[in-house]
């Protein structure tokens, strides 16, 4: 005899901006009978049209009281980075389990306070690295285990995106390293292209904090902000592997970010937003494949109702947080001189472009070298920070 389960009540914390994607996903899972939106916590309440399809959903700017009144089993937290830890702990102490947007915290100390506190409260926690739900990851690991590209020499990742100047004005914390004395660390590697870092570390089999031996950073900014918008990082793992990630928000043209695994007899390229894999190896033609993906909120629901293993719990984000900590403690990003960038001439909103950075980002992923080692005219070896 089958058991009919009631949909799990969910509270969405932070419904504006990226929170809209979570609202749409909750609606999708609600139609499948897996969850129901019990409440929305935001300083600006949603209007009737925005809540169409969510009958009975309560609203309050106070998360503790909203959890108490709704009895929500899950809290989806999509708020400014510096608020994650406190909100996660409020939810956990109220008995709610968590889907916490990435990056989980602005510092390693705050990450540990969050992860330890949530665990002590007995709450399950999933970090919003959606690419970790890609079925391409186990497929690539299987290829590596089978020796498809020989011995792994290193892993590179590239992210060349464009963001206009309004992007850095979207909220008071955008583009900030600190706000009112509190760490934010909203840089290209730690927020918009954090998935490239996390996915590269996952493919390296180095996801825990103790898997990281050394982190080298080169942080630059073309925009008039505090945080870095054009940066690279190289992680040396405890096993001696190398993971290099090069990223920018000042590309000439936006490109799909990817992770590249280099082997002695070939390479594997993974476009993680598209779940697309390209295998290139000696003696074979190129082999392409596209894979499915497990949604992280659905995975959390299955964990709570069926005991499924979590795909992105805090313990597999420790290495990523070591990178965040290295970025946080590095010297402030070097301001690029006006000669190193120009405004795009494409008729769109004003945005700054660093000429040649698209090729530099790709070269970093291919060669596993930092910008200074690639001869970028605005990057000098003395600007490398290591921890």
Automatic annotation (TrEMBL):
Q: Which domain of life is it from?
A: Bacteria
Q: Per its UniProt record, what SUPFAM superfamilies does this chain match?
A: Glyceraldehyde-3-phosphate dehydrogenase-like, C-terminal domain (SSF55347), NAD(P)-binding Rossmann-fold domains (SSF51735)
Q: Which stretches make up the GFO/IDH/MocA-like oxidoreductase domain?
A: 140-268
Cite the Gfo/Idh/MocA-like oxidoreductase N-terminal domain residue spans from the record. Answer: 10-129
Write down the InterPro entries for this protein, in alphabetical order: Gfo/Idh/MocA-like_OxRdtase_N (IPR000683), Gfo/Idh/MocA_oxidrdct_glycsds (IPR050463), GFO_IDH_MocA-like_dom (IPR055170), NAD(P)-bd_dom_sf (IPR036291)
Swiss-Prot/TrEMBL keywords: Oxidoreductase
Pfam families in UniProt: GFO_IDH_MocA (PF01408), GFO_IDH_MocA_C3 (PF22725)
Q: What is this protein called?
A: Gfo/Idh/MocA family oxidoreductase
Species:
Streptomyces peucetius
The organism that produces this protein has a lineage beginning with: Bacteria, Bacillati, Actinomycetota, Actinomycetes, Kitasatosporales
């Amino acid at each position: 005899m089958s058991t009919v389960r009631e949909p799990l009540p969910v509270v969405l914390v932070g419904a504006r901006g990226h929170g809209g994607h979570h609202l749409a996903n909750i609606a999708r899972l609600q139609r499948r009978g897996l969850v129901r939106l019990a409440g929305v916590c935001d300083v600006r309440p949603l209007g009737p049209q925005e809540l169409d399809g969510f009958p009975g959903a309560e609203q309050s700017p106070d998360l503790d009281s909203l959890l108490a009144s709704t009895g929500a089993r899950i809290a989806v937290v999509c708020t400014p980075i510096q608020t994650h830890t406190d909100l996660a702990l409020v939810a956990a102490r109220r008995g709610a389990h968590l889907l916490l947007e990435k990056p989980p915290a602005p510092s390693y100390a705050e990450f540990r306070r969050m992860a330890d506190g949530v665990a002590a409260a007995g709450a399950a926690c999933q970090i919003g690295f959606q690419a970790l739900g890609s079925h391409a990851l186990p497929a690539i690991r299987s290829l590596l285990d089978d020796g498809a590209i020989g011995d792994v020499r290193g892993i590179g990742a590239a992210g060349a995106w464009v963001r206009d100047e309004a992007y850095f004005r979207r909220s008071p914390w955008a583009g900030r390293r600190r706000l009112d004395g509190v760490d934010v660390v909203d840089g290209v590697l730690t927020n918009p292209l954090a998935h490239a870092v996390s996915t590269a570390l996952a493919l390296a089999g180095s996801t825990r904090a103790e898997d990281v031996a050394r982190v080298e950073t080169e942080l630059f900014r073309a925009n008039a902000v505090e945080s870095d918008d054009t940066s690279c990082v190289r992680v040396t793992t405890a096993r001696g592997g190398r993971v290099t990630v090069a990223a920018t928000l000042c590309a000439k043209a936006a490109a799909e970010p990817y992770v590249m695994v280099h082997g002695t007899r070939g390479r594997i390229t993974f476009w993680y937003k598209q779940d697309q894999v390209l295998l290139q190896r000696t003696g074979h033609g190129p082999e392409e494949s596209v894979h499915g993906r497990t949604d992280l909120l659905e995975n959390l629901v299955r964990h709570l109702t069926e005991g499924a293993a979590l795909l992105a719990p805090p313990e597999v984000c420790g290495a990523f947080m070591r990178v965040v900590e290295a970025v946080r403690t590095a010297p402030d990003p070097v301001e690029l001189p006006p000669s190193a960038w120009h405004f795009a001439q494409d008729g769109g909103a004003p945005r700054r472009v660093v000429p040649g950075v698209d090729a530099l980002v790709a070269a970093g992923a291919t060669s596993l070298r930092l910008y200074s080692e690639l001869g970028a005219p605005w990057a000098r070896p003395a600007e490398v920070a290591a921890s």
